[in-house]
Amino acid sequence: MLLPLPSRNLAKARVDFSADDFATLIAQKGLNLRWRQAAECPCSARTADLNLDLNFVGANEQSIDNQYNNECPVCDGKGILYHSEQSIQGVVSSAAGDYLNARFGGYHDGVINISLNPEHLPNFGDKFELLDSVMVYSQAIEDNGQNTLPLRFPIVRRTMTLAGGDVTVGVLYATFADATTNVTQAVELTEGVDFQVTNGEIEWLNKPANAGKFTFSYYAHPTYICVAFPNSVRDTHIRKKSPVDRHAPLPVRVQCKLEFLGES
Ligand SMILES: [Zn+2]
């Protein structure tokens, strides 16, 4: 049935959101973010292209999309490409997690909220790198046989005021295992002595001989991936400085998780 409403006087009191106030908040308090937008990579092939059609695919039926191409130079077979990298601002809030149902001793992943200007409406899977923040990331990595070694994330050097004065450091701890025996050596590699950080990568000064695998604990900017849209549809009608209602998009809020939890 149709549900028409009765005639009521609804025009008296009026409270409008001020989109400008939200934009001011983001400009003043928003953190600097490097935003990369996600899109599905078009590199998947149809089963017919690969001569893999099954018997039930008849002459007039479409074959199905197969997996993404491992040789795709854009997505490397992962199926997601990132484009339009740009620097924006967003308010990061409610970084929270509830440990109630977490597995004891396991990593507990929380979510953060990011509020953005309506022009920066994100897509599922978009990446946000928090350029004002650092976290400690620990990684084991095979030797590449080169004089420089890029880690999973670019290393960020950080200045701290300690007992002996200001110290700027990117790698907190590093060691290695022997390539022949796979036994970890009781040797700590030190930034500034064994290696230095150049362009976010390890550059060896005194590379240990016969090293097979290294471990580095280092500072990196946390990168988050958009996983939910609790407030991505936020539109209102306002009448400020206008005789008639005007549609106005308001800032959007999305929830994000740390990137390294979901992708290898
Ligand atoms: Zn691809």
Summarize the structure.
With 264 residues, the protein is mainly beta. Helix content is 4%, strand content 41%. It has a six-stranded antiparallel β-barrel with strand order 1-2-3-16-13-4.
Please tell me about this protein's structure.
With 264 residues, this protein is mostly beta strands. The chain has 2 domains: 19-41 and 79-132 and 222-261, Beta Barrel (Thrombin, subunit H); 135-220, no CATH class. It is 4% helix and 41% strand. The strands form 5 sheets. The chain has a 6-stranded antiparallel β-barrel. A 3-stranded antiparallel beta sheet has the order 5-12-9, with no helix packed on it. It has a 3-stranded antiparallel beta sheet with strand order 6-11-10, with no helix packed on it. The longest helix has 11 residues, at 19-29. The mean pLDDT is 85. Bound molecules: zinc ion.
By CATH reckoning, the class of the largest domain would read: Mainly Beta
CATH architecture assignment of the largest domain = Beta Barrel
Total count of strands: 16
Helix content: under 10%
Ligand roster: zinc ion
State the strand order across the main sheet: 1-2-3-16-13-4
Q: What oligomeric assembly is this protein in?
A: single chain
CATH topology title of the largest domain: Thrombin, subunit H
Computed structural class: mainly beta
Task: Name its key features.
16 strands; flat; single chain; 1 helix; 41% strand; 2 domains; binds zinc ion
Present the secondary structure layout.
Blueprint: H1 19-29, E1 31-40, E2 80-96, E3 111-116, E4 127-130, E5 135-142, E6 148-149, E7 158-162, E8 165-169, E9 171-178, E10 195-198, E11 201-204, E12 211-220, E13 223-231, E14 235-238, E15 246-249, E16 252-258
Antiparallel strand pairs: 1-2, 1-4, 2-3, 3-16, 4-13, 5-12, 6-11, 7-8, 9-12, 10-11, 13-16, 14-15
Zinc ion binds next to loops.
